[in-house]
Amino acid sequence: MRAPVCVLIGTMGAGKTTVGRLVAEAIGVGFVDSDQLIEDKVGKSVQDVFVEDGEQAFRALERETVAWALDNHDGVISLGGGAVLDPSTQALLAAHQVVFLRVGLSDAVKRVGLGSGRPLLLGNVRARVKQLLDERTPVYQGLARITVETDDRPPADVAAEIVAAI
Ligand code: S3P
Q: 159 and 19 in contact (C-beta within 8 Å)?
């Protein structure tokens, strides 16, 4: 069994993938993103899994994929924003160096743009992002050992803070 150096959590637009790559590069380890692992496994985009198979099917794949990655990847892992809502994933995360990338509504909305490729944002992007932030921020905070602010900061600064903290 291998254990990741750290696991990045946070909502869409927190910068998990960009910052995760930078942290991994800085400490010389590999990087994986749960959405990417799912896409590689099923050979289609997350968006297509939502549309063709439904969110429940996506969540089941996500649960399995995250559990596998936590056991088999020894670098940096970033998790899709909703992965932490699953109770079995939450239980597994208790043993890991979990880093919450905090982002406020304005920066999150700016970073996700029109929300393309993100099925949960269909409709009014700002309202959906606000709802997800309100619902999930307490969950992210409860799981994190380290919280890093990302508003108004370049990804390289956020990554440097994480490297210093882990
Ligand atoms: C989701 C976040 C997405 C992706 C899927 C669902 C969510 O990942 O897993 O669209 O529930 O917040 P990112 O947080 O990497 O955008």
A: yes
Give the mean pLDDT of 121-141. Answer: 90
* pLDDT reading at 76 higher than 80: yes
* pTM, rounded to two decimals: 0.92
Q: Which two tokens stand for residue 112?
A: 């996700």
Give nearest CA residue, ligand 1 atom 11: 82
Between the alpha carbon of residue 42 and those of residues 57, 64, 65, 153, 160, the distances in Å are: 12, 13, 11, 35, 34
Residue 166 lies in a domain: no
Mean confidence (pLDDT) of the chain: 93
**74 alpha carbon to ligand 1 midpoint, in Å?**
22
Given the DSSP bridges, would you call strands 76-78 and 31-33 parallel, antiparallel or unpaired? Answer: parallel
- In this predicted complex, what is the ipTM? 0.98
Supply the pLDDT for residue 120: 77
Does residue 113 lie within any of the structural domains?
yes
In a domain, 36, yes or no: yes
35 touches ligand 1 (CB under 6 Å): yes
Going from the C-alpha of 161 to that of each of 23, 101, 108, 149, the distances in angstroms are 9, 11, 20, 10
Q: Is residue 165 part of a domain?
A: no
